[in-house]
Write a structure and sequence with these properties.
Blueprint: H1 2-32, E1 48-54, H2 61-69, E2 78-84, H3 91-101, E3 107-111, H4 118-126, E4 133-138, E5 142-143, H5 147-152, E6 161-170, H6 176-198, E7 209-212, H7 225-235, E8 239-250, H8 256-266, H9 270-277, H10 283-286, H11 288-301, H12 303-325, H13 330-355, H14 360-384
Parallel strand pairs: 1-2, 1-4, 2-3, 6-8
Antiparallel strand pairs: 4-7, 5-8, 6-7
Helix pairs in contact: 1-6, 1-11, 1-12, 6-14, 8-14, 9-11, 12-13, 12-14, 13-14
């Protein structure tokens, strides 16, 4: 039983550190470590290309184009590139019409000849870009007027900054499912702020981000830029930073099915992601980046197996200690309480998902359980070869 107890405590640590311990450690570090922050430079205006990625986005593509051209960046310093990932609806037609209506703006349409996913389309279209800064965004994410300026301002005075992600805000938090995602997301952004202030972030966001075009690299289409770019630059000793003043607005999924599918898509590379994390957690070589990556990325990617191990180990240990010594020992109570507590949590989460509970604690239990379940589906897809770089968009986010 010594080995089972070891697994119990390791799994428990992984869960607690991922969901609470790491966050509180960052709050402590935020008080103790001098903030490096970002030195923004609004005087120097590097050339920028805004790349909008779209697959069958006829519902929102015109609104997105109108949104990005309404920015406050100098018109002679900015290009626009719509990257259409083999769209089969009216997306391309709408973009071509928009280009004809705005002859004074430098807007181009690139069309992929095959549907290979967002990241592949970006890899292909980037070859057409000669600007200093490449801003990338999704068709359904709307920018604030100064977002492009805020992203670009992070580069001129910071030679080490290779990547900048902005702040995504959900606009439909009156919906229960969207509110649960928004609550989780706000906590994640707080962690990124501290990571960025001290050294570098460990993950970005596909709705609003930018990189030095000369340092762009072709990402694995399965994994995507969100995970790969901060990791790639962090391992080189460069900085990926978070600028909360570069804001994008988007709808979160309004039904749990949409949010579940989105989480499954996010975990389509979960097993390779765990393998990729191992070189990142060498604290002697990578310093703060290693600490951040362990808490923010690796522990979270292990939640699926950590919960299974904790549940099985607590059940085995409870039976063993109760059968051996009855309920008279601390260990008997501890392991029995852990097993019963997890069982009740799963039951509450299941009920919350089935009846669409309105009580926030039940909603969060259901949302968290759904997130871990999505990891399991991601693992299954990885093992069976079903992970794909393409996906169907969630209609409630449009």
């Amino acid at each position: 039983m010594i080995a089972v107890e070891l697994f119990f405590w390791l799994a428990g640590f992984c869960i607690v550190w991922a969901m609470a311990g790491y966050q509180y450690s960052l709050k402590l570090l935020d008080r103790l470590i001098p903030k490096r922050g970002i030195r923004k430079n609004y005087e120097v205006k590097p050339t920028v290309t805004v790349m909008i990625v779209a697959h069958n986005e006829e519902k929102v593509i015109r609104k997105k184009l109108e949104n990005v051209i309404a920015n406050d960046y100098p018109a002679d310093k900015i290009d626009y590139l719509v990257t259409s990932d083999y769209s089969t609806d009216r997306t391309n037609e709408i973009v071509e019409t928009f280009i004809a209506e705005h002859p004074s703006l430098r807007i181009r349409l690139y069309q992929s000849v095959e549907h290979k996913g967002k990241t592949n389309a970006q890899n292909e279209a980037q070859k057409l870009v000669d600007s200093e800064i490449l801003v990338m965004t999704d068709a359904n994410a709307m920018f604030a007027e100064n977002t492009i300026t805020e992203l670009a301002a992070c580069f001129p005075s910071e030679p080490e900054v290779a990547y900048v992600t902005g702040k995504l805000q959900y606009i439909n938090t009156d919906n229960d499912t969207a509110a649960a995602e928004s609550l989780y997301w706000e906590g994640d952004l707080a962690q990124r702020q501290t990571e960025s202030d001290i050294r570098t972030i460990t993950a970005g966001n596909g709705a609003v981000y930018a990189c030095r075009n000369a340092w762009y690299f072709d990402c694995d289409p399965i994994k995507g830029h969100d995970a790969q770019m901060p990791r790639y630059y962090g391992l080189q000793g460069l900085r990926a930073v978070y600028n909360p003043d570069a804001v994008a607005y988007e709808k979160a999924g309004e039904v749990i099915e949409d949010e579940f599918k989105r989480k499954v898509r996010m975990n389509r590379g979960i097993l390779p992601g765990i393998k990729d994390a191992l070189p990142c957690i060498n604290i002697f070589r990578h310093g703060w980046f290693a600490y951040f990556y362990f808490g923010h990325r690796l522990c979270r990617r292990l939640l699926w197996i950590a919960h299974a191990v904790l549940y099985a180990a607590s059940g085995l240990l409870a039976v063993f200690h109760v059968a051996r010594r009855g309920c008279r020992t601390l260990k008997s109570w501890l392991y029995a309480a852990a097993f019963v507590g997890q069982t009740l949590f799963l039951a509450a989460a299941g009920i919350a998902l089935l009846v669409k509970a309105k009580k926030k604690p039940l909603q969060m239990a259901g949302y968290y359980t759904m997130t871990v379940a999505a990891q399991w589906v991601g693992v299954y897809n990885c093992l069976t070869g079903k992970s794909k770089a393409v996906w169907e968009k969630a209609e409630t986010t449009r």
